[in-house]
Amino acid sequence: MITTELVFIRHGEAQCNVDGVVGGPATCTGLTTRGYAQVTLAATRLAAEHRSTPFTALYTGPRLRLRQTGEILGQALGLPVGTHPGLDGPVHGAADGKPWTEVKTAAGGAPHVHPDQPWAEGSDTWNGYLQRASAFLRNLIAAHEGDRLLFAAHGETVIAAHTLLLGLGPGTDAGFVVSHASISRWQHHLNRLGQHRWLLKVHNDAAHLAGPAAEPTP
């Protein structure tokens, strides 16, 4: 029997993604036209699903591209959007607004390469971000036992959820591709013996993006 279900949608393509810059809270300018189209396709798919198997709640983080994604989903599904700081992405500090190539060169790689080292002055560490995001998700899931939750999320939040529910430790070398407007699903199963288990049913499902709004290769 499935009890709790978590469905994550990464935000659509944002202008910072196109420009190759760090889109922190100070400099995020939101979704591109393509990004709006991508999320609209995801919302149409999920609205049909919502009519037969309703979502209990819709959550997102405070960054502009997330709020825009959440608004599209909320309007399509008729759900209010709960915005929580715990669902925001990593803190980028002085890297906010700078080209990622410049940030990665200065830090000796992407944030996950040196997971216990800040990638800029005032930034998170990768493991520090995962720990904080995982703690928030753990508490939110506990408060919604038996519910069906929808998240308009950063790719990093999807990775944090996978890290939490797969029980991955710090410093894991493997990672996950999370495409714009893709869907990932977790289900909490309870069997007849009273045994509980989280199962990753779907990761990075972007079938709804086939066509002109499909995401280009990064």
TrEMBL record:
<dbReference type="InterPro" id="IPR051695">
    <property type="entry name" value="Phosphoglycerate_Mutase"/>
</dbReference>
<protein>
    <submittedName>
        <fullName>Phosphoglycerate mutase</fullName>
    </submittedName>
</protein>
<dbReference type="GO" id="GO:0005829">
    <property type="term" value="C:cytosol"/>
</dbReference>
<dbReference type="Pfam" id="PF00300">
    <property type="entry name" value="His_Phos_1"/>
</dbReference>
<dbReference type="InterPro" id="IPR029033">
    <property type="entry name" value="His_PPase_superfam"/>
</dbReference>
<keyword id="KW-0378">Hydrolase</keyword>
<dbReference type="GO" id="GO:0045820">
    <property type="term" value="P:negative regulation of glycolytic process"/>
</dbReference>
<dbReference type="InterPro" id="IPR013078">
    <property type="entry name" value="His_Pase_superF_clade-1"/>
</dbReference>
<dbReference type="GO" id="GO:0004331">
    <property type="term" value="F:fructose-2,6-bisphosphate 2-phosphatase activity"/>
</dbReference>
<dbReference type="GO" id="GO:0043456">
    <property type="term" value="P:regulation of pentose-phosphate shunt"/>
</dbReference>
